[in-house]
Every structure is written in structure tokens, then in C-alpha cells.
Amino acid sequence: MIRCTLPTDDTRKHHARELFAGLPRHYDRAGAALSFGQDPRWRAALVDAVKARPGERILDVATGTGMVAAALARRYGAQVVGLDQSPEMLAAARARIERSPALRVTLIEGEAERLPFADGEFDHLTFTYLLRYVENPAATLCELARVVTPGGRIASLEFGVPEREPWRALWRAYTAVGLPAAGRLISREWFEVGRFLSRSIPDLYVRHPLEGMPAMWREAGIEAATVRRMSFGAGVVMWGTRAGARG
Questions:
Q1: Domain CATH number, residue 21
Q2: How many domains does the chain have?
């Protein structure tokens, strides 16, 4: 079983905080454009995987500018808490929620590895583009599962690497050359993000191959993990159920 021990090296997390500090202004539109319109499709699939009921509580970890948190609240009539370590991202998320005051979304600053919530406090949990930025993905999954009630749904979205040619070769060329070049047209910060993604996406799967992810989820207390590859494998949506039966 995975031990939910806290990491002693926060290098990845500090890098992520610095990387995203200058992105919120263009984040939503840039993410959609640089993914050729696929990022919104992936996020919609993530929201659809939750299958929540009205009034349930959902924690959205690494909420960023609040896109998924707002979509969850709108889709299910749920009470959503969005958590992110970046004050800059949370400021953009607050601006989004303020434009839709009927949505029941609360935003707080916090870390995925050290969630400020009690065991089983939420009915469901989502997280987006998170595991590449933590030192110990297995222990982080364990911590995420801790705050979900037994029987609740846990769902994630992450970038993927296409398995088959020619998509794999095209993906490599785009992430190595096209993505940084396109990012440069937006801002210096997006140029750096483009360069970073070309390394960090494949690095995650070198450390934790996708075919082994369901086992890692299971060891963290998340059963029946399902993997859905989208856009020829460039996006990966996963979901499973917190072990145990609802009380």
C-alpha cells in the first residue's frame, strides 16, 4: 500500500508556482489555442466523468482559473471548493466566479499534498494537470483520496503522449518546436511554458507509465480506475471510485 507521506523536496511545486504566476491573463484562451481546441473538450469529459448529484460537495484541486470548478457547479448544481497553490490563478478564478454569482463555488489557497480538510469531507474530487508538478504522485493521490467519502468519484485530466505513429511523431515535433514558437507569440511566459511542457509531459510517463496508473490509483484507495485517451492520446481523462461503500 502507498504511504501518504509528505515529500521533503518541493522543487517541482516551486517551479510550477513560478511558471504559472504570469499566465492567468491569457490562460483560458491560450490553453485552448495551443491545444488546437482540445483542452476544453478534455475538461468537459472530466466534468462528465464525475456523475454528481445536486447539492453534493466537490473538491476541485489545482483549480487554476476555475474553469472546471465553475463547470461542475453549473452542470450538477453542486457545492464546489476550488483549491490552488497559485494566488495569481485564484485571482483569475475569483473574477470568473464573480461574473456568475449564482454558482456555489468557494476558492481557497492550498496544496494538494497537504489538503486542509477532514477525512471524507467531499462527495467527489477532480484534479487537472497536477501530477507532473508534485514530487510524489503516489502519495499525493493517497492524500486526495483521503478527503473523499467512500463511494465518491475521483477524476483527473492530464496531458498524454500518443502511442501510435504518425501521431506520436507529430506530437513530438509540435511540443519540441511548434508549442514554444506559438507560445512566444503570446508572451515570454508562454514561451517558457511551451519549452517546459515538451520535457515534463513525457517525463511523467517515464517515471509513472500510463499503463501502471490504474494500479497506483488502486493502491491509493481508488477502485475501478478507468483511462480514456482523447485526441489520439494527447489528452488523458481518468476516473475511479473511492474504496468502500457509502454510509
A1: 3.40.50.150
A2: 1
